[in-house]
Each structure stands twice: as C-alpha cells, then as structure tokens.
Amino acid sequence: MDIFRNLKAYFWQDKGFMFGSVFGLAVATALGMVYPLLLRTLIDDMIVPGKFDGVLGLALLAVGIIVVKAAFQFLHGFSGGRLGNRLAYRLRNACYSKLQELSFSFYDTARTGDLMSRLTADIEGIRNFIGFGLAQLMNTVFLVIFGFSMMFAIDWQLALMTFVMIPILGFVAIRFEQQIHPVFRAIRSSVGKLTVSVQENIMGVRTVKSFAREPFEVKKFSVNNDEYKRYNVEISGVWARFFPLMEFIANFSVAILILVGGWRVIEASLTLGELVALNGMLGLIVAPLWTLGFQINNYTQSKASGERLLELLNQPISVRDDSHSMPLDENAVTGHLKFNDVRFRYANREDHPSALVGFNLDAPAGSVIGLLGGTGAGKSSAVSLLFRAYDVTEGAITLDGIDIRHIELESLRSRTAIVFQESFLFSTTIQENISYGCPGATMDEIVEAARLAQADGFIRELPLGYDTVVGERGMGLSGGQKQRIAIARALLRKPKVLILDDATSALDMETEQEIQKALLTVMKGRTTFIIAHRISSLRHADEIVVLDRGRVAQRGNHEKLLRQPGLYRETFRIQFADRPEELDSSPVASGGENDRRVTG
Ligand SMILES: Nc1ncnc2c1ncn2[C@@H]1O[C@H](COP(=O)(O)OP(=O)(O)OP(=O)(O)O)[C@@H](O)[C@H]1O
C-alpha cells in the first residue's frame, strides 16, 4: 500500500468522490442483501401459511429497493469515474511537467517508448484501480461483513460453518498476489520494450530500409514480443491454477449449507424460508469472493504501474535552481563568459575519461569564440555547459562574474540560444517553428530572422510560405533548410550568448558564406560560440580553441594558429589545398608539424 500512499497527493483532494464511490457501492450491496430476506418472508410468512395478501406489498417493496439501489449504484459509478479521471489527469500533468524539468542527463539514457507507455498504459492502470477496483475490493469486504452478520442473525451455527472457508480463500488470494506481482512488473516493462522497438523502428525507418535490415528488425521485435507473450502465458498459467481452486473452496461452503441446512429443515430447527435466504446470501458473498482473483490482479497491475510512475516522478533532477539562484538583470547582462579550470565528466560515463579537462577560456562580451577539434574532442560538451545542460564536475563557469550555477536556470537560458548539430523542427508551421523561443514575435521580426539565416528565399518559394506545415522532425525539408530554420529560430531570440554547434554543416559553402556574412551583423554585441569542422566558418573568430580529447591543444586567432605546427595548420592545409600560398605566407614559428588532423 506504500505505493498508493505515495500517490496520495494525486487523489486525496478528491476523497469526497472516493468516499462517495465506496459508500455508494456499500449501500447498494447492503440493499442487495435484502432480497434474500424478502424471499424468506415470502416463503415463511406467505407461501407456507397460504396468505397471499402481502405479496403485492412485498413486490412493491422490492421495486422500491431496486430504485434506491440504482441511485446508490449511480453514486458509485459517478464518483468512481470522477475520482479515476481526475487522478489520471493530475498524474498525466505531473509526469509531463516532470519530463519538462528533467535534465539532459536523464534523456541521455531514457527510452522514448518506455516513457510513452508510462504516460499512457500505467496511468490507465492506476485510474482503473483507484476509480473502481478499490471500491470493488472494499465491496467484497463489506459483502463478507454484511452477509455474515445477516446469516449470523438467521442461524449462527450454519453461518459459522460456512464462514470457515473464508480464511482459506483469503490465504489463497494472498498467495496468488505474491506469485503474480513480479510477473506483472515484468509485463509492464516488457510493454515498455515493445513500445520502444516500435517507436525506434518508425523513427529510424529510413535507416532500416536503406540498409535492408527489415528482417533484422522483425526478428528484434519478435524477441521482445516473445518475452511479452511468455510473461502473459506465465500469468495465464497462474490464473488457470488459481480460479478453479478459488471456486472449489468458495463452493465448498454451499455444499456445507445444502447438507447441514437441508438436514436442519427436515428436522424443523430451520424454516424453508431461512434456508433459501441463507443460500441467497451465501451466493451473494461467494460470487465476488472468487472474483477476488480479478480484483487482486487489478490491484497488482496498478501497483506495478504506480511503481513505474513514482520512479519517474521521483527521478532526481541533476540541474536545477537552488535557494541561492538569482535571476539575471536582463538589461545589464553583457555576455562575458569565463570557464575557470573546468573538468567535466558525463554522469553515465563514470568509467570513461572526462569529456573536458582543465578547460580555461575567457570570452569577453561580444567576442566570437571558435571551437575546432576531432570528433569526440569535447566541443559540444564545452558549449552545453554554458546553458547548464549539465553542471561542471570541477571548476566553474561565470557569466558577468557570477557562477552560472547561481543564476536562475530559466533566466540563464532565456539569454542564450543554441543551434544544435541536428536541427529539430516541430510538426507545425515554419512560422511557429521560427517563433518557438519568442511566441510574441511579429511577422516582420520572423521574416527578418529568416532573412539573416538565409531561409527567407526558400520559404517564400514553398506554396504556403511561412504557413507551410513541416512534417514530424522537419520531414520534407532538406538538412540545410532545416538548419537555416533552426538558425532563424535562435537569431529571433536576440540572445546575449549565441551558440552554433556545427550549425552550418549541412549547408553548401556558398550558403554558409552568406550566413557568415549575415552573422557578422547579428553577432555584434553577442558572445558567440561557433563549433565547426570547416576553417572557413571559424577564421574570423577572436579566439579559436583547438580541442583534443578534452584538452586544449592550441588557442589563438586564425593568423596565430596558422603559424603554429599542429591540428589547426594541418586542417587548413587539407581544406585549402588549393591555396598553398596562404600557408607559405604563414611560416611555422618553431618546431615540426604535427601530423594529426581534424576530421570533418
Ligand atoms: N550525452 C552524453 N553522454 C555520455 N557521453 C557523452 C555524451 N555526449 C558526448 N559524450 C562523450 O563525451 C566526449 C566528448 O563528446 P562531444 O560531443 O563533446 O565531442 P565533439 O567534439 O562535440 O564531437 P563531434 O564533433 O563529433 O560532435 C565523447 O567521448 C563522447 O562520447
């Protein structure tokens, strides 16, 4: 019950509905118990003595009871529905908000399909149990209590004899719950895996098809499907054993009643009406008792769902505001960034070397910093620390002299804009994609940003222009077009710190040059970080940092680096093989050439 106690915050404010649901069902059940009593009166007081005067009255009383019972059943259904749906609504919102809060590191290992199944199937499981299952479980308890009290009042010896079977039923039901719970937990996670493989397959369908890996994918899916089937078969095996056993035990009480009750009626120590009433009551008690398995099953499923939801809701948030966090003064912020002896290691890569080691950098307000280095050198990691995608492991990063860990996250991120290597577009209009970070932007501002990003031209050529709805993740646009929309989105925000993480890699040289030119204007007054593999994208930077396996290998401006032996000069030599004269005019200051080169 710990799980439900921990979920209390999501349903306890609706305790009125919970009470209504349980109370409605309890009263309806109690009223149902009156029918056997009516039968007893009919047999003992009317049929046996041959007095038919009261039959109509008895029938009318039965109708009256039906009406009142229906009203309480309505109360149960209405309250249970409200309770379950409101709980599911709150849980969905809470999980979704939690997903927004969770840091980048969570998403480094999270699986989309698994998260989707938590937000759908698991919430549904909880909704069903809290809304209805719980009331039904309690109803079974009420039935046993009411039913046996009434049976006791009619004939306590017979009631006691039949009651003997109840603890055995309870014991079997609890054993069943213990056996089935781990299998249900496995089924839930198996559903998650299935969803993950379907979702990944759809997302990666182009890769799958181009590599003709459909058979592999089918096989991979069938492994998960097989596991899912295996657990379900296991569950049905447990059920197959459980239900006949429960039915046998439950109906054993009926056999006792027939034997002892029949004998007592013949002996005249029990009336016929009382035997019929006792039999009716026992039937009412026994029926839900052997559905106890279903109810426990429902409870167990929702417990497994609750565990998975709580696991998500209780996920620690690695990057968050603390009590000392302060908002930035929007107007005063200049964009002066400093890395002070920063070391950074990904939390999920404890056994790997640090992604950044002893990283120092001073980026004065308005400066342009270029980052160059081989793949995996730590460039993206360095810039991701700037907007606290992750927190540094050692050292500090300051913005205008303030440690960024003491700046409110939202305030920090509102002054930064990043264009990622892979441009993600939402499946909405181009206009809305560009204005994503500035919902209040005017059309003129949107067009201006698109113009600077060299996107206005191709957007206007589309039949619906800025109102064109782009497909999921920007399907239907070329890589370069997506990048340009992503650049426009970042520029529209007019950030103090602009980060271009390989943001022009999908563009042809000519378009890139155009954007570079446009950026020269845009970058004025902003601190800009440019990660690129092309020297042409970086050569105008105030400082270029060459990274090699997380360490600064070289730093300086283009001219200085060209005169140094090392990665930069080597990369230049490869990329500008047609312009050897520039190298010749920048002779190496001292030492031999380093023959390592930057891939790109
Ligand atoms: N989210 C992550 N979780 C764990 N390790 C990561 C993550 N992102 C990068 N790394 C690792 O950190 C190191 C630096 O990666 P990073 O992405 O910063 O390199 P990069 O210089 O930007 O490379 P590229 O030019 O290929 O984008 C690599 O060893 C990489 O495998």
Major pleated sheet: 6 strands, mixed
The count of β-strands is 10
CATH topology of the domain at 2-313: ABC transporter transmembrane region fold
Number of helices: 23
The separation of the N and C termini measures 57 Å
- Which spans have pLDDT < 50 for at least 5 consecutive residues? 591-600
The CATH architecture category of the domain at 2-313 equals Up-down Bundle
Residue-averaged pLDDT: 86
How large a portion of the residues is in β-strands, by DSSP E?
5-15%
Question: Hetero groups bound?
Answer: adenosine-5'-triphosphate
The best one-word shape is: elongated
Provide an overview of this structure:
This protein has 600 residues and is α/β, with parallel strands linked by helices. The protein has a domain at 2-313: ABC transporter type 1, transmembrane domain (ABC transporter transmembrane region fold, Up-down Bundle). The chain contains 23 helices and 10 strands. The protein has helices at 2-6, 15-32, 34-47, 55-101, 104-109, 112-154, 156-163, 165-203, 205-210, 214-266, 272-290, 292-313, 379-386, 409-414, 430-434, 443-452, 456-461, 479-492, 509-522, 535-538, 558-562, 567-575, 580-584; strands spanning 337-344, 356-363, 368-373, 394-399, 402-403, 416-419, 497-501, 527-531, 543-548, 551-556. The strands form 2 sheets. The chain has a 6-stranded mixed beta sheet, with helices on both faces. Strands 2-1-4-5 form a 4-stranded antiparallel beta sheet, covered by helices on one side. α2 packs parallel to α6. The longest helix has 53 residues, at 214-266. The protein is elongated, with a radius of gyration of 36 Å. The two termini are 57 Å apart. The model is unreliable at 591-600 (pLDDT under 50).
